[in-house]
Design goal:
This is assimilatory sulfite reductase (NADPH). It catalyses: hydrogen sulfide + 3 NADP(+) + 3 H2O = sulfite + 3 NADPH + 4 H(+). By secondary structure, this protein is of the alpha/beta class. The longest helix is centred in the first third of the chain and has 21 residues. The radius of gyration is 30 Å and the shape is globular.
Length: 883
């Protein structure tokens, strides 16, 4: 059989016969599958052929797909133990251990998905390209003349040169910040169709290199014409990367490298210059030898956040010649390390306000006991002041996929940098807030805890990692902090004050808040998308009634959802549980069905939950997933699955309802950017919500709250809501300040409120809006409103980007670059720049576009442009609400 033939079984996700033909067609055009010795598909796949043909130059299918990183032995064992259908279904025709070993990988691949990381992907490439002897024998055929020539030294040692770059060094220590072979040579996912550098369609062709290097949030500056030097740097020129080591033997076969020839001409002169410089006083300032690698300077400055360690000889000489200013010294502590501790500082970094609330509760408790307390928002805190702290309590949330919240970015970067000061005199504790449904649970809190310990500070309490239902954990931590202060500062002599419950400041103001939501009536619930759209986006109008709730443009609305009744019944059936069984939640006793429907998170699958479940489940496979040092295995299982899948895949016979309930967390509220101005719609609040629906692992899946709002609640019904202030995403105080707003998709929500507020208050500042989605005909949200506002002059400019209306995809960042000159003029006039929407891609793409505009139109270098945007952020002129 041939790999390009169709299987007689249907592909589950597409409901048609599965075939590798598209992959085979792609492979045949690639550098591996074409030429005078093409890689084979017929009779060379994993089913029939076990070894490569002697002298075969290009790889067969099996050469890559039989690699251990691709089909791990541990996964094969799981396949044999757990997936019994191979015997009961496939085994009817395909019998024997030989068939199982050869073909199980195909089936397993469909079940577990991609489960290898960048390092393992590289290992597949190195399996061939790391064999220098074999690579030296390769003959490369010119696609036009058909002439063959021996592969160059550069080609034969490509893995060596890669290993010396910053990318290779990062991956060598398991840091996936580095780019893998595939990231550069097949960034669009066509890994079966890798092309030669000379091909104009290749991502590594000189004409496309800028686009390739700037993809996936990497070297965004690569597209700029100011960075031609970066693009002309050959990362596979071994001689260039080894210029600091001239001990290698002369090899005339390597004269295809211009750098190599230059080294032998200029090397002796350079050696004399370097030797003399080492004997001069200038060399004394060099603190430690630094290996200079391509990209290190940018990495040190941008990715790590510190000053560059790449202080080359010429930079030091130039500083002496022009009288350069010395580096700013790390400030010395103004406190005596041995002096008694008499006060403390509470630092909070909060995106949604939860961390700020915990900090306020802690401050109130400590002041009630007479302690001297300084409370500070990380957004307003000078990181250099940390050297003067003696006792510090840090409360910080985690945003997106492991990032610190925006207010905490400055302090996070300062402590992460190599230039951060030593803090041996500091005592600290960290309370981390997060959501266990995310991969990097409480990552920002873990970072701060690790940074402070690395800098010599002493931890006085173990870090607490609190989930979305953090209230009990916060109360216990506050008690622990109080005890800690008594031990370190001493007893204040104050008799026990009257202890108050933690303050919900929204409740104190209106009577309603997160701990006491308001049951609001839904006034209107309509679909904004047109017929034929792939999306469903709801506009929802909610009556605030006599709640006393108020909000500002930029705030969020918290909504407590209810689980889908059909899913509740399915989970009860999977557990073989009686829905009328009684369970206890806190101080409340209720039926299991009601607990599932209203109070518990019964969908979100996370490592934290799996660990709790595994303690009750006698499954070697589940224990193996948790114990595997490779997190990709567990992540592969969690992706696209829900709690019901865990229960069905690893059933626990006879588990009591209460025991299962104890594994679950409370159903957290969802926060949505408010899409209205209260001045324009008194007594109302509006939302713009995109319904989340997808199919995975044989089931239709739904977002709990988005589909609750989209399909299970209508006019007249009531929602449990509260207002969540967002003081870090506000309109400017000066109504004449120009606004640039970028909000594709549901990211448009807060800007509807912004523009309504500006119109109602008569603000004279200009308004420029960027909106984008898939198709103009069906996905132009609030079309009539925006065009009316543009016609009446409320909007000064409206730029639209619909990605699927033409062959070349157009996004909001595309429109920004098209209007670079005018955008920069607005920024220079003091405009505030706002972004709302997807954090993982859109916000990064917009940031890179903004950086390119500042470089191009302002004539600035990369570093100067970054400083320009940092200054905007510091003055609250560059604000982001991303998720």
């Amino acid at each position: 059989m041939d790999c390009s033939e169709s299987c007689h079984l249907k592909e589950p996700s597409k409901d048609r016969a599965f075939t590798h033909k598209p992959v085979v067609d792609e492979f045949k055009k690639s550098v591996h599958g074409a030429g005078h010795a093409p890689g084979a598909t017929k009779d060379f796949h994993g089913g029939n052929r076990l070894e490569e043909e002697t002298g075969q130059q290009n790889p067969s299918c099996r050469r890559c797909h039989s690699n251990t990183p691709y089909i791990k032995d541990a996964n094969l064992e799981r396949f044999k133990q757990e997936l019994h259908h191979t015997e009961t279904e496939c085994g009817t025709c395909h019998q024997g251990e030989t068939w199982r070993n050869q073909f199980s990988g195909h089936i397993l691949r469909r079940l577990v998905g991609k489960n290898y990381d960048k390092m393992e992907a590289n290992a597949m490439c190195v399996d061939c390209h790391g064999d220098h002897e074999a690579m030296a024998k390769v003959e490369i055929q010119d696609p036009e003349t058909r002439e063959r020539k021996k592969a160059s030294f550069r080609f034969a040692h490509a893995t060596d040169s890669y290993a010396k770059t910053l990318h290779g060094r990062l991956l060598a220590v398991n840091d996936e910040s580095g780019a893998s072979c595939i990231d550069c040579h097949a960034p669009d996912g066509f890994r079966h169709g890798i092309l030669r550098d000379e091909s104009k369609d290749s991502p590594t062709h000189p004409d496309r290199l800028g686009e390739t290097c700037s993809q996936a949030g990497c070297h965004g500056y690569a597209k700029s014409p100011l960075n031609l030097g970066f693009l002309n740097t050959d990362l596979h020129d071994l001689d260039f990367l080894r210029m600091e080591d001239l001990s290698f033997a002369l090899d005339f076969s390597r004269l295809d490298s211009a750098w190599y020839a230059a080294a032998w001409v200029l090397g002796p002169l350079g050696l004399i210059f370097l030797t003399s410089s080492l004997l001069s006083p200038l060399s004394r300032s060099r603190r430690a030898p630094v290996t200079e690698v391509v990209g290190y300077d940018h990495f040190q400055r941008v990715m790590i956040g510190g000053g560059s360690a790449k202080d080359g000889l010429w930079r030091r000489i130039r500083g002496r010649l022009v009288g350069g200013t010395p580096a700013v010294p790390v400030p010395a502590p103004l406190v005596e390390p041995g002096a008694p501790i008499t006060s403390l500082t509470i630092l909070f970094g909060s995106q949604t306000g939860n961390g700020e609330g915990v900090a306020a509760d802690l401050e109130a408790r400590l002041k009630a006991w007479g302690y001297s307390v300084e409370l500070a928002d990380m957004a307003d805190y000078d990181p250099r002041e940390i050297v003067n702290e003696r006792l510090l309590f840090v409360i910080v949330s985690t945003h997106g996929e492991g990032q610190p919240p925006l207010p905490a970015e400055k302090l996070h970067g300062y402590l992460y940098a190599e230039t951060a000061p030593r803090l041996e005199h500091l005592k600290f504790a960290v309370f981390a807030l997060g959501d266990s449904s995310y991969k990097h649970f409480c990552k920002a809190g873990k970072d701060f805890d690790a940074f402070l310990q690395r800098l010599g500070a002493s931890r006085v309490l173990d870090r607490v990692d609190a989930d979305a239902d953090f209230e009990e954990a916060a109360a216990a931590w506050i008690d622990a902090v109080l005890g800690c202060c008594r031990a370190i500062i001493g007893d204040t002599g104050i008799e026990r004050p009257l202890e108050a419950e933690p303050v919900d400041h929204a409740v104190a103001k209106s009577g309603y808040g997160k701990t006491h939501p308001y049951p609001a009536a839904v006034l209107r619930n309509v679909n904004l998308n047109g017929e034929g759209s792939a999306k469903e986006t709801r506009h929802i109008e909610i009556d605030l009634g006599d709640s006393g709730l108020s909000y500002e443009p930029g705030d969020a609305l918290g909504v407590y959802p209810k689980n889908d009744p059909a899913y509740v019944e399915a989970l009860l059936a999977a557990l073989q549980a009686d829905g009328y069984s009684e369970v206890t939640l806190g101080k409340e006793t209720l039926s299991l069905r009601e607990a599932f429907y209203k109070h518990l998170d019964i969908t979100g699958l996370s490592r934290v939950l799996v660990e709790k479940y595994a303690e009750l489940c006698d499954s070697r496979v589940l224990a193996g997933l948790l114990a595997d040092p490779d997190p990709a295995r567990l992540e592969g299982y969690l992706w696209g699955r829900q709690i019901i899948d865990l229960v069905e895949d690893f059933p626990i016979q006879g588990i009591s309802p209460q025991t299962f309930v104890n594994v679950l967390r409370r159903l957290p509220p969802r926060l949505y950017s408010i899409a209205s101005s209260m001045k324009a719609h008194p007594g109302q609040v509006h939302l713009t919500v995109g319904a989340v629906r997808y199919h995975a692992h044989g089931r239709n899946r739904e977002g709990v709250c988005s589909t609750y709002l989209a399909g299970r609640i209508g006019p007249g019904e009531r929602l449990a809501i509260f207002v969540q202030p967002n003081k870090h995403f506000r309109l400017p105080e000066d109504p004449e300040t120009p606004l640039i707003m970028v909000g594709p998709g549901t990211g448009i929500a807060p800007f509807r409120g912004f523009v309504e507020e500006r119109e109602v208050t008569g603000a004279r500042g200009r308004n420029w809006l960027y909106f984008g989605d898939q198709r103009r005909a069906t996905d132009y949200l609030y079309r009539e409103e925006w065009e009316d506002k543009l016609r009446r002059g409320v909007l000064t400019r409206l730029d639209l980007a619909f990605s699927r209306d033409q062959e070349r995809k157009v996004y909001v960042q595309t429109r920004m670059l098209e209007n670079a000159r005018e955008m920069y003029a607005w920024l220079e006039e003091g405009a505030c720049f706002y972004v709302c929407g997807d954090a993982s891609r859109m916000a990064q793409d917009v940031h890179r576009a903004l950086l390119a505009i500042v470089m191009q139109e302002g004539g600035r270098t990369q570093e100067q442009a970054e400083e320009y945007l940092e200054a905007m952020a510091a003055s609250r002129r560059y604000l982001r609400d991303v998720y």
